[in-house]
Give the backbone structure.
Amino acid sequence: MKKIYLFLFICFVSKISFGQVNPTLVDIPAHIFVNDGATDFENILKKDESIKEKVKILHSYNELSHDYSVQTNNFDEYWDKFESQWSWIKLKENKAPLLLFQGLKKIDDEREYVEIFDVEKQRNKRTLFSKIGKLLAYKTHPRTNELIIYVHRYPCCESASHNVYRVRQLEDELKVNDRFFVGRDAGDMKGQFFPDHADFSAEYKKLDQKTELRWSPEIIEKGAFLPRTESNLMIHYNKGAIYKVLYEEGNWQFVVFFSGIAEEQSSVLNYTNFKHKAVYGWIKVYNSN
């Protein structure tokens, strides 16, 4: 029995130490997706001895979906494995800091998680945010001075779907919205998924004709993402769709759409899930006005 426990412990430590098995395009440039975003997270994540007692509350009420977190596990055993993954984060000046967890939760996880807890809330209402992903960037709101964080959900396995979550605190709850793009670096998907830099503008544009949205600045009609699709066409956007231009390269523009997705079949995304979600991609400009 001791040998079995030793084997499981070695597997767990190896998983925590060496990371995920097969995620793709884990690291993306924050400056493309977050205007003036900072990445020096040591400036916003704080650690002190009080964290242990607060996490112990979550553990004792079985509110953590982590390895070693069920009530039959000893908290000291849990803390020995996960202490380094906990921090304080303060999103609003007039609010108490929140607990932030980041990293792998279980031995068989393919990807990391970011979770935020408010221990002062009632039992079973303390989890404010829990998403697959890793911290991408943060920024301070220029008018309210509140801290806004961004989390990048990256794909694993055969998926190419990414989300960039924007998280801010409103009173005692968190408001979360997200934007979507596709890409892989496993060698089975062709394309330059995003540019080297982005030029953020307050100007919104409107399509003057139905337009193809592609995941890279080229027209690929064979072997774009095998075995899923031959083409790099994501979907069309209708005339009148609202978008912003973030980068221009020849007659291609890297854009983010906010509305106007066409109701059509796609091998990449289901339009019903994107009627109110922003989507990044490339469009070809035939006539510039």
Observations:
- The longest strand covers residues 161-170.
- The chain has four helices and 15 strands.
